[in-house]
Amino acid sequence: MKVSHIFRLVILLSLAGCSGKTPQSPTLDDVFTTRRSVRAYEPGRSISEAEVRELLTAAQNAPSWGNMQPSKYYVAISQEKHDAVLEMIGWNKDRVANAPVLIVSTFEKGRSGFFRGQPANEVGDGWGAYDNGLSNAYFVLKARAMGFDTLIMGMRDSDALRSLFNIPESETIMAVIALGYRAEDPQVPTHRPLDEIVKFF
What we know:
The structure is a single chain. The chain is of the alpha+beta class. The protein has eight helices and six strands; from the N terminus they run H-H-H-E-H-H-E-E-E-H-E-H-E-H. The chain has one domain: NADH Oxidase (3-Layer(aba) Sandwich), CATH 3.40.109.10. Strand 3 and strand 4 form a beta hairpin.
């Protein structure tokens, strides 16, 4: 092998080592195509508070109206709070009972979509819900990149959750997110044809 080829190989290997990535790191496309709404979780596995913090840090990077960052999260990581939340999510209880972490997502009213205390347009607090959805999307995609799985659940008892976590009335409760490890691979869902949802002009 020529010296120049050896030198080039050494440089490439050095750059790979400095990138902080391992050969197993998923690509963004991998994350998009393997993320699923998982409804069965492996029992007996845990997720640390540090890992949840890493996920929520990713969620903070989501764009929001005027960088208002209206999203807030209440993390049921203790067994007591986890089991209490299970009783507040209807028929999803049995589906996510083995998910070690359950997270309530909310948004602060009157922030996104508002200017000087008044709605900036007809959407009003709908922008808070929109921004919370973006934050949740970042959360579940980062979770998949780290090898976790999720289920975003809209069926929940908001009054009971508000009482359990002392969530103020100034916040709208949106969803409960289950976080854990899939026990089975869900089927790949079908998607509407792109031409049904896109118009080019």
